[in-house]
């Protein structure tokens, strides 16, 4: 049925631009409750001239927010991907104001409390901390500063106890320390002759120390060398009659590379490679007469072994091999003689058992056996120089509250020769390497060593050598270190009847300019007292040099 009243179109109102639910509907629909003011005029249309409602807030220029931050739903005990510790949120509790009543928690719609009159309780107001010296500098990245949320703490570097020590250079996981010393001086008797002949000299001494920084296994290298040049050349007649060469320049090098493989927690494989380059000591009877210069010898060798810990008991077994070869001797007349009869190879084995008696004290027993085989079975004088020998010693390693550290032992060494004309050699063995930290500024050291060395002299099977060194080092200042050293040694030439006493006294002073450069000075006096006349000698050495290190 059609209605008699005319139909009307929907009127446009201000709700057209209000994006809300029902925005396009009439203000007063028949099915919706009208405004409170229109209840008294029921049946009349609402006034369209009333002020429209404000528009919705604009989203133009606003930064959108997507999702929730990490760890938003972790609550107090949930999982947080950053690994941060959960702290329960404390509710703001009511607290009394100074000089006022108790107030409740503040909200955005609450009014601030009145400022109390009179002096503020607790003293004058605190001033802000002054800015640091680096406040205006370049900011440190968070990754370097270690303050990224969830980042594990960085491992602190060990404290550097030597402010003038070489910092070193890292090459991956290796720390390298390199240095070189340039020294000049004067030696009153470089050839250790009687009578003495003095000469000025110079010396260059480079060194390199490399150590690994691994959690397991280890590898290190220690290389030290020197070359000493003199400004003197002995006349041919003096060199021929006194057993000293005309040119007394000589090199010296000691190198060692050590390695360790940690197979298990209690089992390790140890290895070592070594090289020694030197000459016979000046004044030694082993030096030929009529030499133009010292013949250089080189000793190369290695050690390979394994040690295992049985609770407190440690057992170590290793094998050694060393080869010594000499250069040909150059004589003053221009000819050369062979030293092949002095070349030999030594094969040996070492067994050591140690027991950890208590912290800092570890007694041990060590046994060594070796055989020496010469490249030529018969030497220039017709002697068979091959021999068998070894030693046994017992001692202990020390680490008493880190004040006394090192090792000391006493034992017996012996050597038997294939030639019946060469007598057996045996004697007391002493070895020690102790460091005593008397005070933080004073350190004392004691070193002892014993060995049976080869000799080319006819009828002499070998030389029993013992050396003892005492040293005291004191830091007058952190940058000024003084060292006093005293050494005593003996050389027993079995079969020759010669016994030499060697003494040395020295005083060193090191001035450390910085971590890179040092100035070093030394005065040393050496003298040799022999039981045979004509072989005593004295020498005073004064040196001054500079050391560069990194």
Short description:
The chain is mainly β. It has helices at 142-145, 236-242; strands at 95-96, 102-103, 169-171, 174-187, 199-212, 218-230, 250-262, 267-278, 297-310, 313-326, 329-330, 336-337, 344-355, 361-374, 387-400, 404-417, 425-439, 442-453, 463-477, 480-493, 498-512, 517-530, 537-549.
What's the structural blueprint in terms of helices and strands?
Blueprint: E1 95-96, E2 102-103, H1 142-145, E3 169-171, E4 174-187, E5 199-212, E6 218-230, H2 236-242, E7 250-262, E8 267-278, E9 297-310, E10 313-326, E11 329-330, E12 336-337, E13 344-355, E14 361-374, E15 387-400, E16 404-417, E17 425-439, E18 442-453, E19 463-477, E20 480-493, E21 498-512, E22 517-530, E23 537-549
Helix-strand topology string: EEHEEEEHEEEEEEEEEEEEEEEEE
DSSP summary: helix tally = 2
Q: Give the uncertain stretches in residue-range form.
A: 32-43
In which range does the helix fraction lie? under 10%
Radius of gyration computed on alpha carbons: 45 Å
Number of DSSP-assigned strands = 23
Largest sheet: 18 strands, antiparallel, barrel
Describe the structure in your own words.
The chain has 550 residues and is an all-beta fold. Helices cover 2% and strands 47% of the residues. The chain has 2 helices and 23 strands. A hairpin with a 2-residue loop joins strand 19 and strand 20.
Notable characteristics:
mainly beta; 18-stranded antiparallel beta barrel; two-stranded antiparallel ribbon; 2 helices; 2% helix
């Amino acid at each position: 049925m059609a209605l008699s009243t005319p139909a009307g179109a929907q009127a446009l109102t201000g709700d057209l631009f209000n994006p809300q639910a029902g925005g396009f509907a009439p203000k007063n629909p028949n099915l919706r409750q009208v405004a409170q003011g229109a209840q008294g005029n029921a049946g009349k249309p609402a006034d369209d001239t009333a002020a429209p409602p404000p528009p919705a807030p604009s989203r133009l220029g606003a930064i959108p927010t997507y999702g929730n931050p990490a760890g938003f739903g972790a609550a107090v005990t949930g999982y947080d991907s950053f690994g941060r510790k959960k702290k329960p949120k404390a509710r703001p509790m009511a607290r009394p104001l100074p000089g006022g009543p108790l107030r409740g928690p503040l909200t955005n719609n609450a009014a601030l409390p009145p400022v109390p009159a009179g002096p503020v309780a607790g003293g004058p107001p605190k001033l802000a901390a002054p800015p640091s010296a680096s406040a205006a500098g370049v900011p440190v990245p968070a990754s370097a500063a270690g303050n990224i949320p969830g980042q594990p703490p960085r491992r602190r570097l060990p404290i550097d106890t030597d402010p003038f020590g070489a910092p070193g250079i890292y090459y991956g996981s290796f720390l390298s320390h390199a240095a070189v010393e340039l020294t000049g001086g004067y030696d009153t008797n470089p050839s250790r002759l009687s009578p003495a002949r003095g000469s000025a000299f110079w010396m260059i001494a480079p060194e390199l120390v490399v150590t690994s920084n691994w959690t397991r296994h280890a590898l290190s290298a220690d290389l030290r060398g020197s070359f000493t040049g003199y400004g003197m050349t002995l006349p041919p007649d003096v060199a021929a009659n006194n057993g000293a060469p005309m040119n007394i320049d000589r090199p010296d090098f000691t190198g060692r590379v050590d390695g360790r493989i940690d197979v298990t927690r209690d089992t390790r494989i140890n290895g070592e490679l070594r090289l020694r380059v030197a000459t016979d000591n000046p004044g030694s009877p082993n030096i030929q007469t009529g030499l133009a210069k010292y013949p250089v010898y080189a000793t190369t060798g290695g050690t390979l072994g394994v040690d295992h810990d049985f609770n407190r008991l440690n057992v170590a077994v290793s094998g050694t091999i060393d080869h010594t070869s000499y250069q040909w001797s150059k004589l003053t007349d221009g000819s050369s003689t062979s030293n092949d009869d002095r070349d030999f190879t030594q094969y040996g084995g070492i067994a050591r058992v140690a027991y950890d008696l208590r912290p800092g004290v570890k007694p041990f027993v060590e046994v060594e056996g070796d055989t020496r085989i010469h490249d030529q079975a018969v030497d220039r004088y017709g002697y068979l120089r091959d021999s068998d020998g070894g030693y046994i010693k017992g001692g202990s390693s020390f680490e008493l509250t880190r004040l006394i550290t090192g090792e000391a032992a006493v034992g017996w060494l012996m050597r038997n020769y294939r030639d019946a004309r060469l007598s057996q050699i045996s004697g007391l063995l002493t070895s020690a390497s102790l460091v005593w930290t008397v005070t933080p500024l004073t350190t004392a050291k004691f070193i002892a060593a014993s060995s049976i060395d080869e000799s080319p002299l006819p009828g002499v099977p070998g030389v029993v050598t013992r050396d003892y060194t005492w040293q005291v080092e004191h830091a007058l200042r952190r940058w000024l270190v003084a060292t006093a050293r005293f050494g005593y040694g003996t050389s027993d030439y079995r079969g020759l009847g010669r016994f030499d006493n060697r003494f040395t006294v020295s005083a060193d002073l090191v001035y450390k300019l910085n971590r890179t450069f040092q100035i070093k000075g030394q005065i040393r006096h050496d003298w040799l007292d022999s039981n045979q006349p004509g072989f005593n000698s004295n020498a005073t050495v004064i040196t001054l040099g500079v050391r560069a290190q990194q």
